[in-house]
Amino acid sequence: MKKAGNYRQYVLKDFLCDEYFQDWILKPNKENNAFWEEWLRANPGKKKEVELAKSILLNIDFKYSKPDQLKIQTSLDQALITIEALEQKPVNPGRFLKFARSWKVAAVLIPLAVISSLIFWRITPRGFYDIKTGYGKISRLTLPDSSIVILNANSSVRYGKKWHKGSPRELWLNGEAFFEVKHLDSDHKIENFERFIVHTENTIVEVLGTSFDIRERRGKTEISLQKGSIKVRFTKTERQPVFMKPGDMLLVDSVNVIHRSSNIENALNASSWKEKELILSNPTLSEIFRYLEDAYGKSFILEDPRLANKRLNGPILIESLDDALFVMSTALNISFTNEGDSIRVNFK
């Protein structure tokens, strides 16, 4: 299939109409995988349009029969109106057929009139699961490849209902989750579909088979690797990728790597919330309260500033918020007063 020479000028409808792009999404092979992966690395600004075009194509029920000419014109005009409205450009429906010079292209775009709502998949995605946990709730998920995700409280994850061979396994995380990734590599040669990728606000974490925890809160992302290996890329900086080994912990914000350490015990403790415990390394009350605020949706008000730097060693039960408050009250001789969405903290 012939490649076009001006992909940098493409917008959404151009990708949808391009036969070489269609073949990459629907019939991937080593040659077109290599071309498009290299092209996306060189043109990161086009990633959103490519992902949206990919989502649309994968959710179309293809039929290659030749339809009535009037129906073609009507359906394609409607599809163009929808697409160009998304791009916020003026529309001239009568010129649409010049984008569809083959029946294969027409067959791709005709269903868009019926499923045009897929264009807004970020708002109402039909080809994706959107899973969200409430405050104080933990959920265990099994992904299409049998990998396991344990989603912490006040967190959400999005992933495709079907994972297509030839494409990476991808999901998008907001909050905190623990991953046990199924290992698919059987010949030590990494194929595209064997890649497992987790997107957060600040990072793109790529693995094969491994166990790790990602906490994405308050503009910062903390990654704790328990076994296997992962590569961490950064979404908002040109910094080189970081390769992590078991025991490594990485804390980043939108610009910098704030902290990097290696301690297998601390890395294991990072996911202690799965067992309804909070195990931190000699934390201050301020650090504990930040975690509880994220997990339970309450804000803590310190009546005495000296409380902020008090420390508590040992695990804290977090089966419920009351359990956590009882442990801290007993161990540190402090009191809690519940005032709806906030909790006041003081010495007894």
UniProtKB/TrEMBL annotation:
Residues 130-231 form the FecR protein domain. Residues 278-344 form the Protein FecR C-terminal domain. The chain crosses the membrane at residues 105-123. The keyword Transmembrane helix applies. It holds the Pfam family FecR. One of its GO terms (molecular function) is sigma factor antagonist activity. Keywords: Membrane, Transmembrane, Transmembrane helix. PANTHER family: PERIPLASMIC SIGNAL SENSOR AND SIGMA FACTOR ACTIVATOR FECR-RELATED, PROTEIN FECR. This is FecR protein domain-containing protein. It comes from Niabella ginsenosidivorans.
